[in-house]
Design brief:
With 120 residues, this protein is mostly helical. The mean pLDDT is 84. The chain is elongated. Helix content is 86%, strand content 0%. It has a domain of 77 residues.
Length: 120
C-alpha cells in the first residue's frame, strides 16, 4: 500500500513537471528559477494580456508553487532513492557475470549525467 502511495506521489510530481514544461514552455534545461519565472510571466503576459498589477501578483504565486514542488521533491527523495537502489539490485540479480561490469559502467555514466543536470 505504501509503495502505491509513493508511486502515486512520484507520478503526480512527474506529471506536473511534464505538464508544466508543455504549458509554460520552460526556457532551457538548467535555467535558474528566476529565469524560468520571468519566462512564464512574460509568456502569460503576452498570451493573456496581463495587466502590470496581475504580473506583479503572478510572481509570488509562481515562487510559492516552486517552493512547494521543491519541498515535495526533498520529502520524496529518500523513498525515491530506496526504489532506485532496490530496482538496481533486482537488475543486477538477473545479469550474467559478463554483463555486471557493463551495467556498473552504465550506472556510473547515468549518475554522472543526472548529477550534472541537477547542478545546472
Amino acid at each position: 500500500m505504501l509503495v502505491v502511495f509513493v508511486l502515486g506521489i512520484a507520478l503526480g510530481a512527474l506529471g506536473a513537471y511534464v505538464a508544466g514544461r508543455r504549458v509554460w514552455g520552460a526556457p532551457t534545461e538548467g535555467a535558474s528559477h528566476r529565469a524560468k519565472r520571468a519566462h512564464i510571466v512574460e509568456r502569460m503576459t503576452r498570451e493573456l494580456t496581463l495587466s502590470p498589477d496581475q504580473q506583479k501578483q503572478l510572481g509570488p504565486i509562481l515562487d510559492d508553487m516552486q517552493a512547494k514542488f521543491r519541498a515535495l521533491h526533498e520529502q520524496m527523495a529518500p523513498q525515491t532513492e530506496q526504489i532506485r537502489q532496490e530496482g538496481r539490485a533486482r537488475i543486477r540479480a538477473l545479469l550474467t557475470p559478463e554483463q555486471e561490469p557493463k551495467f556498473e559502467d552504465f550506472l556510473r555514466r547515468f549518475d554522472e549525467q543526472k548529477k550534472k543536470k541537477n547542478e545546472q
